[in-house]
Design brief:
Blueprint (H helix, E strand, L loop, with lengths): L6 E6 L2 E3 L5 E3 L11 E14 L4 E12 L10 E4 L4 E9 L10 E7 L2
Length: 112
C-alpha cells in the first residue's frame, strides 16, 4: 500500500433475510482474508453545482485506499474499525509507475 494507513477495514458482501423475510445487507465479512485490512480512510468536501437551484453545495464524501489486488467489488460495503459502514459509490486503480502497483481508490458514502 502506497498511502499511509490510518485505520483497518472489513469488506462486507452479500445479503441475508431478517426475521420478517425481508432481504437486508449482510453484516459478515466477505472472507477471512478481507477482515482487518490496513486502509487509508479520509473525509473530503466536494463542491457540486445544482442546476435546478442555480447554486453550488458542499457535499461530504469519503475516500478509501486499499492495497492493490484486494478483492473488493462495486456492490460491497466497507466497515471501519469504529463500526461505521460505507457504501461503495465508485472504485478504480489509477495508473501508476511500472515499478509498483497503484492502490485501489474507492469513493464511499457513509450509511451508518
Amino acid at each position: 500500500m502506497i498511502a499511509r494507513a490510518n485505520t483497518t477495514v472489513t469488506v462486507l458482501r452479500g445479503t441475508t433475510t431478517n426475521a420478517h423475510g425481508d432481504t437486508v445487507d449482510g453484516t459478515t465479512a466477505a472472507s477471512a482474508a478481507l477482515t482487518d485490512l490496513p486502509a487509508s480512510l479520509i473525509e473530503v468536501n466536494r463542491r457540486t453545482y445544482l442546476p435546478a437551484e442555480g447554486a453550488t453545495r458542499v457535499v461530504r464524501t469519503h475516500i478509501c485506499r486499499l492495497t492493490s489486488g484486494t478483492d473488493v467489488r462495486k456492490d460491497d460495503r466497507i466497515r471501519d474499525a469504529a463500526g461505521a459502514v460505507y457504501q461503495i459509490l465508485d472504485l478504480n486503480a489509477s495508473p501508476g509507475s511500472p515499478a509498483h502497483l497503484p492502490d485501489i481508490v474507492i469513493q464511499l458514502s457513509k450509511t451508518t
